[in-house]
Amino acid sequence: MNRVAIVGAGITDCRGRWVEATYWDLFQQATRRTLEDAKCTAGEIDSVVYGIYNDIFEHQAIPESALTGIIGMSLKPGTRVTSGGATGFYAMRTAIMEVGSGLSDLVLCIGGEKATDCFDPQSRTATPMVIDTIAKSWDPFFEYPLGATASDSYAQMCMGYDDKYPGDIGDVTVRARIIEMLCRQGNKNPFGQRRDETVTAEQVMASRWIIAPFLRLLEACMYTEGAAGVLFASEKKAREISERTGVPPIWVKGVGAANESYQAGRGGAYKPLWSIVSDRVAAERAYAMAGVKPSDIQLVELHDAFIAQFMITMGEMGFVPLGRTRKLVDDHVMADIRELGDDKRPPKGQVLINPSGGLIFGGHFVGGSNMFSMWSARREMLKRQMPLALIHGTGAINAVYGGALVVELEDGGVR
Amino acid sequence: MILGEAWNLPREVTEIQGKDPGTYLAFNTHMVTFYQQTYGELSRFFLALRDGRLIGSRCPRCQQVNVPAATWHCPTCDFVEMEEVELPHRGVLAATAPITIFPSASFIGDAPFARGYVDVATDAPIASYLPSRLRTTTGLPRPGIFVKGVELKLVFENERIGSIRDIFWVPMSEVPAKLRDRKPLLAPQLDFARPRAPAVERSKEAEKALAGALSAMRDLSGKVKKSPRAQKDLSGRKHSIGVKTGGGNFTFQVAAGGIRVGAGLPRKADFVMVAQDPGVFSRWVADGSLTDAAVEGKLWLPHQEAFGVLPILDRLPRSVRRDLK
Question: A173 to chain B nearest CA, in Å?
Fold first, then answer.
C-alpha cells in the first residue's frame, strides 16, 4: 500500500440537539472546517467518503446524496459507509484504501449524525425514540422483538467479562475516577458537548442506574449531533499541503479491523460473551502492520460507549492485562491531565486516553465519532509532539465490530 | 395492533428555540414502514415454537448446533446442508443477564425485564446461544437470579403466534418438581401473579433505622403539602402500599396530592414491598432513589405496576427541594 497521510481535520460544535442545523449544514460545516485546516479547496478533492450510521436518524435513505452539491463534491465519486458505532473508523479505512491503492490522491472523509430529531409521542420526549431507532440495528426476528437496545447489549459484554474476571470492572470507585479524569480532559475540548460540566466521582456513584451493576447515568455517553472531517492525502499531495499549512503530515502506519459473528455462542465462529474479540483482533492487526507494540503508544482515542467497556477495550488492546484493567487507575497507567498540562507528553508507563473527553464528554455523533477521535488525536500529537497514536472504534450488537488505526507524526515527533 | 394508539402526532409545524439566537421551525413527521415480512428460512423454527417445540439446525460434519435455527447451510463446512434437531426444554444461562429499566419506545411498559443468552444444545461441541426473555416467579427481575450457569426451564405462552416472544425461560429451581420434565410447559402452569415476598430478619439496629426512616418520611410528607411541584407529581394518584422491613412494617399511602406513613401494614394494600434495610427509605428522602434500590435488589417488588409507582415517588424529594429553596 502507498503511504497515506492525514493533512487536515475539523469538527463542528457537538450539541445534544442542533436546532439550528439539519445534517446538510452540519456536514457542510465539517467540510469547511476541514478544508480551512488543510488550506485546500473543494476543487482539489478527488473523492469523498461519508460516514453516516442510521438512515432513520437522518430520515433519508441514501442520506449522503443530499450532500454532494452542498459540500462542493459535484461530479466526484462518493461512497457512504455505515458500520454502527464503528462507522467513522470504517469510513476512514475506506478513504485510506482509496489513497493507499493509488486510486485517489486526496480524499475527504466526513462523518456525522443527526440523532435527536426523533420524538416519542408516548412520553413526549426524544430519548425512548432515539433508543428505539438504534435498536432497529438489531434484527427483526429475535433481538429487536426481545427489546434489545445498545445499552443492554454493551452491558451484556460487561457482564460476560465480569463473570470471567470478577472484581475488575465492577468497582464503581475505579470507574468514577476515570469519569472524573475524562471530564477534566473534556473541559479542554472547545467543541465538546459537555465542556462546561464538572463531574465528581461522588456524583457518578450517586447517579441513577441505567443497567446495574455496570452502568450509571454519569458513566454513559450522550446522544450528540455534529459532524467531523478528516483529509487523507497521498505522499506527494501531503508534502504539498504540509508546505502550505506548515503542519507536518500524520502518517497512517497501521489499520486493523474485525467483525465478529452476529450470533453469540460457544466455540466455532460464534461470538463469545466474555470478550470483545473484535477490539483485540483489530488492534493486533493494526500493530502488526505498523510494526509497533502497545507499550510504544502513549496516546489513545478510543470509542467509549461507557466506562466499563472503556476498561475492557484497553485490556483487549493490550495496554493493561485482561482481568486487571483497573490498573488504569490503581497503577496510574491512565495519565492525569492535571499533571501533563496542555503540552507535555505522559511519562513512561502512562497513556493519555481520550484527551477529547471521549464520546462520554466530547460527544458521540455516531457516523463521525471515530473521526472526532482522529481530529483529537492529531491535535494532541501536534501539541505534545507525540510520535504515535491509536484510534479505536467499536459498534453493532454486543460490540462485534472493531477497528483500530495507528498513526505516526512525521519524523516521529522530532522537528 | 403493531402500533399503540399513542403512536401518532398532530400534523403541525411549531416554532422552537435552539442554543443560538433566532427562531427555527420543527415539523412533525414519521418514518414508519409496515411489513408483512416473511420469516423465510426461519419459518421452520417459528412453526416449531407454535407447536410447542424447540429446534435447531445441526451440521453433520462439524456437529455445530445453531439455535435459533438461523441458517440451514453450515458456513464453516462449505455450506453443507444442516439437519433439523429437536432440542431439550432445559438450558443453562451463558452469561449473567442485563436487566433493562429504560426501554426503547416500543417497549415502554415492559420494564424491568431481563434478556439473556441461553445455552440449549449443551451436548454439542459448538453451539450458538438462544437470545430470550427471562422471567422469575419471585417478583420483579433483580440481580442474583439470572446469573451465569443458572439452570433454566423453557416455558411456552399459552397463545403462540410464531414469535420469539412465544417462549421465555424460568430458573429451574422455581419450577415444581413434577413440572420440570413437562414438554411443553405452559406459562399458566406457573404462578407469576402472586410471588411470595421474601422474609426479613428482624434486628434492633433495623428497628432504629426504621424509626429514623419514618421520621424522615413524615418530614417529607409535611414538605410535600407545601410544594406545588410535588402536588403535580402526585396528582390523580392513590396508592395504599404495605412495606415490610427488618425493623418492622409500615404503611405508605398516597392520596389527595400527599403522602402519609403509619405503623403496621394497611388492612387493604394495593401491594406490599419488602426492604431488609429501612435505610432505603431514609436515603430516598435524602435525594436518593427507590427505583435504584429496586434495581439493586434492595427493595423487593411483586409486579410491574409497583415498579411504575417508584419514579413518581423518586421525584418528590427533588420537587420539594426546588419549591422550598
Answer: 17
In a domain, A201, yes or no: no
C-alpha cell of residue A344: 507535555
* Amino acid of residue A336: D
Whether residue A176 lies inside any domain: the answer is no
A124 touches chain B (CB under 8 A): no
Q: How far is CA B159 from the centre of its chain?
A: 21
- H or E segment and range at residue A239: helix A235-245
pLDDT band at A415 (very low <50, low <70, confident <90, very high): very low
Using a CB-CB cut-off of 8 Å, the residues of chain A touching B105 are 120, 122-123, 128-129, 131-132
Residue A324 confidence (pLDDT) above 60: yes
Of the pLDDT bands very low, low, confident and very high (cuts 50, 70, 90), residue A413 is: low
Q: Does domain B204-323 have CATH number 3.90.180.10?
A: no
- A197 is a domain residue: no
Band the pLDDT of A411: cuts 50, 70, 90. Answer: confident
Judge whether A59 is closer than 8 Å to chain B, CB to CB.
yes
For residue B82, the chain A residues in CB contact (below 8 A) are none
**Which residues of chain A make contact with B98, given a CB cutoff of 8 A?**
151-152, 155-156, 159, 211
> Which of A209, A260, A270 should be substituted to probe chain B, the one whose Cβ sees the most B Cβ atoms within 10 Å?
A209
Instruction: Supply the pTM of this predicted model.
Output: 0.96
- Which domain, by its residues, includes A40? 4-117+225-232
Domain count, chain A: 1
**Spacing of C-alpha B128 from chain mean position:** 25
Is A166 a domain residue? Answer: no
With CB atoms and an 8 Å threshold, state whether B164 touches A17: no
Geometric angle at alpha carbon A365, from A362 and A369, rounded to 5°: 70
Q: What is the CATH number of the domain that holds A21?
A: 3.40.47.10
Phi, psi of A270 (to 5 degrees): -70, 150
* A156 → chain B, closest CA residue: B98
Please give the ipTM for the structure prediction: 0.95
